Amino acid sequence: MTNHTLKSGLRNLWKNRTLGFINIGGLAIGMSAAFLVLLWVQNEFSYDGFQPDADRDYLVTWDYNGRVSTDFSPLPLTSAALQRIPAVEDATCYYLFPGADLPEIHIGGQTRMEKKVMFTDSSWFRLFRYDFVAGNANDFGTIKGVILTASLATSYFGTTAAVGRDLRIDSDNYVVQGVVSDNPVNSSFQYRLFLPLKARFASRADRTAAYQAWKTNTAKTFIRLRSGIAAGGCERQLDELIKANGGLAEQTAKLVPLKEMHFGVGLSSSDMAYGDRKVATIFGCLGALILLIACINYLNMATARASLRVKEISMKKIMGASRGRLWRQLMMEALLTATIALLFTLLLIWITLPAFGRLFERNFVFSFSSPAVLDVLLGTWVLSVAITGIYPAFLLSAFDPLATLQADKTPNTTSAWVRKALVVVQFTAAVALILGSIIIYSQLSYIQQQSQGYDKSQVFTIQLPRSSWYKRNAPGRRGSIMQALKTELQRQPAIQNVGYVSGPLMQMPMSMSGVADWDGKDKNFNPVVYPMYIDPEARSLFGIELVAGKWFLPGDTSDRHNYVLNETAAATFGLHQPYVGQRFMLADDTGLVIGIIKDFHFSSLHEKIAPVAMLNNPGWKNILYVRASPHTVPGAIRGAGKTFNRFFPDLAFNYTFVDEDFERLYKSDIKTSKVIGGFAGIAVLLSCLGLLGLAAFTAKQREKEIATRKVLGATVRHIVVQLSGSSLKLVIVALLIACPVGWWAMYKWLEDFAYRTPISWWMFAVAGGLAIGIAFLTVALQAIKAAIANPINSLRNL
Questions:
Q1: Interhelix angle for 761-787 vs 415-449, to 10°?
Q2: At a CB cut-off of 8 Å and minimum separation 6, what does 351 contact?
Q3: Helix-strand-coil split of the chain, %, nearest 5
Q4: What is the pLDDT of residues 671-727, one digit of tens each?
Q5: Is this prediction's pTM over 0.85?
């Protein structure tokens, strides 16, 4: 019976090759798209769940005004929490320094800068799972040992058998103590080099000061609670611990479970790539929607062809076939279609997976040994079989054969209105996705065109070496070298201007709270302030607009303790006018406000402009910004590289363009734009495939009617309108449904931007026009083919 059912299904597929090709092609495209995006979604929702005690491990974050303001904590908090809070079973932390302060790795006569570095101790490897390929973490932090990932060990030494090998980092010698396997892609911890925490500090005095700094959030702290302990009670104890040690009382602790950390923090700027639950959920729904649209094509074709299979199925029933047997036969046809589509899906996945991985910066590997791959692939296939098989099988196996044969007509079913409803669903999704793509593109264009408040064109950055270079040179010597480097660069004709800044102009690495003071300040008011240490030349370099007072003067040492504030700072602090000349203090450094600058965006447009306090303090400047003269960017880069190598011969010259930094701010939004645009294209393609199949079937059904109309004088135009009208009505209904749905979805998406483009009427007009135009062309091509056919051939069999 099974063999006969299989052969019958294959014969039926071969008999209807054109419709079978449409069904299989549409399903393969839909299943491929659904697999790719659902694989990414599965990866997002599985972050850090593989850790053995993930249900008891928490990241310590800090709320300010009801939202997480930072995921870093004071360095002494880790040991203090372990000693003074009984609910804490274990604790660890790691220390980073953003910007240019990266360890210099000297190996094989070359110097490398490694970005994925953490400074920690042995407790890190006690809390979190790491598989040691060689060596161990015993006594890590008490000896001069380092731990590498397998990929980094291979990069440095050509092998993972690196334990005992020497490694010079900054000005210190270390020994490789252990090699661990690289963490999977669904781990938040993607660090490759682990250094002892004490190596972060140049001297014992620096280390002592760091462990007493309760007002500065510099370390990322993780704690493990004892079994059965609620996080709320521990949060209150952490707040009390901070206050007892003179920390920032305005911030309150919030423990984020490790399993929820990827979605639960929500910071756009951090050393870890946090996810967005809303985006992941939307992508998951879109993947399921694309699969549904592909399945709808099969459903429509199967129900439309019911009239052609009535006599076949009726005769089988009269000859003794049970309803169950017929149901199995029809399900087998759906199974065959989905299985053949699955084979093409595997080919499409093999072709597109590398590009998809590059888009999301994930190293996805397609392997049948991977549980995640099998779960998503089999789930997609089973869902396709269920959607495409159950309803058509139920519909065609349910009618009365005698009544059908006697009446010589199709059984009374609801398939016609169901087909129309499914076409409306397809085009509703397609129009909503087109509208979403247009609005996202408009927002990204708005970001590009929005004035940042400074000129970033033809500007590139050079990061100065800090770690070992700072240790080797006294402050005065460092200042002399930095000034000499700047002077040499300014002499080059290809370079227009040069200036130092304390950190990246976008995504400022440091914020302060509770350390600012001014005349008239409410003692309970402690806003967040972003300090920026900047050169006098930086104003002309970036074109920063001064709205009141003056800017820092070159060579004027009296400005070392004065401040230039942005407009938001003056308004937030409630300074009275005139602003210039008022006392201002930041972190015990008291001076005067000498100027106010126009607000500029130093973070993405997702966030509102925050208070900025600028200082002219040479000791904190470590990034050199260089503006090239017009049309001389390559020459400016070559000249800057040669000059840099004269001053730092043992270091590689690295630079980045400010434009590239700007693009990185919106990397996630650009990915969303590409995915939504891709889904829109796939949705339109699948919808048009379905519409093409229905149009072809309708034209075949009405072949004799069309021939009769032509004999009676109907024109090709009249016939095309007759055949296309019903389909276009469905597309218009879909448009009326999709517009409010799309508007609501994109309004919610735009809420994440503090500065956003308005949703205009023309966006709906373009989306609707595209959908109607594409649908009309699809149907019209088939209608024209039917209209120009020779009517004699159709009427001959009457």
A1: 140
A2: none
A3: 55, 15, 30
A4: 778 888 888 888 888 787 777 766 766 666 666 777 777 777 777 777 777 777 777
A5: no
